[in-house]
Amino acid sequence: MMKPQSRRSGAFDPLNRLERSGLGLLLAGIIAFGVVTEIRSGGFLERRMTDVDTYFRAAWAVRVHRDPYQVTDSNGWHYNYPPLLAILLYPLADAPAGASRAGLLPYPLSVAIWFILSVGFAWVGTCWLARAFEKTSPDPRVRDQPRYCRRWWALRIIPLLVCLPALGRALARGQVDVLLLLLLCAAGALLAYHRRLGAGFCIGLAAALKLFPGFLLLYAIWRGRPRILLGGVLALALGMIVVPVLVMGPHFTLAAYQRFNQVLIEPALGLNHNRSRGKELFDINRTDSNSFEAVLNNTLHIGALVKNQRPPAPTRPEKIAAWIIGLALLVVTLQLERRRRGYDAVGRNLFLGALTVLMLPMIPICHPHYFCLALPLVMVLLEARWRRDQTLPIGWPLGAALGFFLLSHLLTVLPPFRLLRGLGLVTYGGLGLWLACLVTMWRYHDPPAATRLLE
After folding, report:
1. How far apart are CA 356 and CA 361, in angstroms?
2. Distance CA 228, CA 201 (A)
3. Model confidence over 173-194: pLDDT tens digits?
C-alpha cells in the first residue's frame, strides 16, 4: 500500500493559537492606525495631514460645475488626476470654507469611509489574486484546500506584511494607490484565469484613474495579446470619455481636459512653462520622490543632503541618464521574458509584476507609497516558490529580497535615516524585488502536472 503523503509543514492545517493571536494583533493595529489617521486627516487638527482633501474638493467642484483643476484643498494643493476619480468620489465631496455644504457628508465621516474602503480594496484585491493562484494550481491539494488553513492565510498575509509600510503610507495620506492595487490584483487574477479582455480592462481603468498604469499595456504589446490591449482601450474610453461626458457634459469635459493638458501634461513634457504644479509635482527637490531621476540627482549631490540642503535641479544630462537606466532595465526584462519557460498563471504574473515594479521609479515623481503596488509581485514570488514545495519555505535569497524591501520602507520613515530616503533606499528595495523576479522567471518552469494553455 502507498503511504499517505507527508504533511510535515501542516500547510493545510488550521492556524494554531499563536498564529490566530498574531492575526488579532494585526487587526487591532489596523483599527488603531485608522483612528490615528482619522485624527490627522479628519479635521481634528489645525492642519489636515492628508492628500484625500484634494480628491474630495475636486469632487465638490464636479458637483457644482466648477473646474476641478482650479480649486484647491485646505492646504492649497491642487487635484492632479484625470476627472474619473473626482467623479467616483462624488458622494464624499467636501466644500471649501464659506461654500454651501447642503447635501454633503461631514468631512470626518468622508475621511473614515475612504479609509475603510481603502483597507477593503487592499484585502479584497489580495484575496482575488491569491484565490486565482489557488484555483489554477496543478496540485489538487491546493485547489481543494480548506479555507482559512495555514497556506490560505500565508499567501495573503505575508505579502500584506511585506508591503505594510508602503500601504500604511498610502492609507495615512488617503492616496488612491490602494484602489490601483485592487485593479492590478484583479488584472493579475484574470490573467491567471486566462481572461485577457478583463485583465486589460482592469489595467485600463487604473490608467484612467492615474495615467501611469497605462505603461503596463506594454505586456499586451510585447506578448502580442490584442485582447488585453483592446480591454485597456475600452476601459480608457469608458473612464476618460464616456463617464465624464455623461456626468459633466461634453462642454465641461472638454474644458476640464484642456486645463489638465495645460497644467499637467504639457509641463511634464516640457511643452510649456506652467509652474502651478511645480511645488506639488514637477520640482523633485520639493517632493518625496524616489524616481531614477531624483535618486541619481540626490546621489550626485550627496553633500547637499548631508548638510540638509536641497540639491540643485537635475540637469538635462542627468535626466537623460535616468531614462537610459530605466530603459536598459526594461530591455533586460523584455528580453528575459522572451526566453522564459513558464506560461502558466504564475509565469504570466511574473512578467506583469516585473513591469509594475520597474514602472514606478521610471515615473519622474515616484513617492514611496507607490511601492504598495509591488504586492502582487510579492505574492507571485511566494506562489512560484510554493508550487515546488508545499512546506511553505521562503528560502534565504527570496527572504533577503523581501526583507530588504520591507526594511527599506521601515527605515526611511524614521527621521535619522532621512539621508537614505533621499538616496533612494526604497527604490533599491523595489529593484531587489525586480531582480528576484528576473531570477524566478529564468528558473521557473510550468509544474509537470500543469496543463499548459497554448497562447
Report:
1. 10
2. 7
3. 999 999 999 999 999 999 999 9
